[in-house]
Amino acid sequence: MFYKISNIADRKSIEERFHVSFEFPNLYKPKALIDGLKESTISVITQSDPHKAVYAIWGLLPENFEDNWSVFQDVVNTLNVKLETLENSNGLYSNLLQNRRCIIIATGFFTTWLTNGTVERCHVHLPNYEPFAIAGVFNELSDGFITCSIVVTKISESFKDIPNISNLKPLVLNDRELKQWLDFSTSLEQIKKLCDDHNSLNFEYEIHESESSKIKS
Q1: More confident: 156 or 2
Q2: Whole-model pTM above 0.70?
């Protein structure tokens, strides 16, 4: 699964790229490595307010949850969620695909692969480290905090040259798909078609570090 992303874009480039403004612009800081296993905050754009970039805790929590983030994540890891889970769930993920879609802003994500008997990590990004949109779903807690999960889907032909031990990848959206994802009028049938017909962007990759660092991907 995918527990680390990067976002090194400056605030202005994000606002221009996605035609949004940050709710609290002075709080935004680029980060070369965002570790979802450590209760990290990421920049998102929600279906509820597609013209504003806000901050969310990575790792979905139930709307009425009042305990610590780590307590819930120890029971069920919600950093990633498969599209099939969103389509069929009646519990935590119920109605998220219909009513609470979002995008996570990133300039890269990390895959793992096996080589020469060791596990390596690859930093996957666009040619000029441009920001892009990863599909996500979110909940808003009673205190106003937003929590979210990255949507992952099966790898496609356009992703086959990226080293990846998993058969999954983050659902990265092009401009047309992004508009559909954030539009309340987009039907579940259209969302399903979007994912089935999805092609990855023109990603590049570089080896990041080895498993000897003891940092999980």
Answers
A1: 2
A2: yes
